[in-house]
Design goal:
It contains 7 helices and 6 strands, in the order E-H-H-H-H-H-E-E-E-E-E-H-H. It is mainly alpha-helical and 222 residues long. Helix 2 (34-66) runs antiparallel to helix 3 (73-101), helix 2 (34-66) packs antiparallel against helix 6 (188-206) and helix 3 (73-101) packs across helix 5 (123-144).
């Protein structure tokens, strides 16, 4: 059996969003409103973390399959943990972003973020991420409570279809192109698309200038 690892690389923002943190420290926050600043900072931090966990998960999976002198189970375990953390970070970031856009005082940053319809914030996408994250946590609960049955998976797993090799008889190609748990699946192609979009929004927040946006800046909103 041949293996085909089909995890898209995310090359955008390899160093995260240093402009956001430098601006916050030395220039000023993105808003005069404390809650908006807190939500924006948390969103950017979680997206940075999700990008790192995604990259580490991909790296550890390749390390597992590229190790030929031993069975590198430790790399696979770390791979699973990285993707579990990635999903958790993404779900928390989505929650922050949704609340950030619903600022009742019409903060300039919130208004600017509402000018674009982000795909990752739609129910169709957000529900998939949340459901996968919840299944991971419910699995822990079921394990602790002794509700898991013999043969059930005890962690998030990496999976994909297996198909006949096009040129070698009696050989197959196993694709690793998705995360799976408790009957739910999430394709890496979708995950990378959503995470890339989340990163672009984080970059937009990092470079946001309330005065240049043309939106009225509330006075005394801090």
């Amino acid at each position: 059996m041949y293996m085909s690892i089909e995890i898209p690389e995310i090359d955008d923002y390899p160093k995260g969003f240093p402009a956001f943190w430098l601006k916050t420290l030395f220039v000023g926050t993105v808003s005069q409103n404390y809650q908006v600043n807190a939500l924006a900072s948390t969103y950017v931090r979680l997206v940075e973390a999700a990008l790192i966990e995604y990259g580490l998960g991909s790296s550890k999976l390749r390390e597992f399959w590229d190790t030929h002198d031993s069975f590198n189970l430790g790399a696979m375990h770390r791979c699973i943990s990285h993707f579990e953390s990635c999903l958790s970070d993404m779900q928390r970031a989505i929650n922050c972003y949704r609340r950030l856009r619903r600022n009742r005082n019409q903060d300039p940053l919130s208004v600017a973020l509402n000018t674009e319809k982000a795909g990752f914030v739609t129910d169709a996408v957000a529900d998939q991420v949340r459901n996968m994250r919840n299944e991971i946590h419910h699995l822990d609960e079921n394990l602790i409570e002794g509700r898991l049955q013999q043969g059930q998976w005890i962690a998030l797993r990496l999976d994909g279809p297996e198909r006949p090799h096009p040129t070698e008889a009696q050989q197959t190609i196993k694709s690793i192109d998705r995360l799976a748990i408790a009957g739910r699946e999430l394709l890496f192609s979708d995950l990378s698309t959503w995470l890339t979009e989340m990163a672009h929004v984080a970059d937009k927040i990092a470079n946001f200038d309330a005065k240049a946006s043309g939106q009225p800046v509330p006075s005394g909103a801090a």
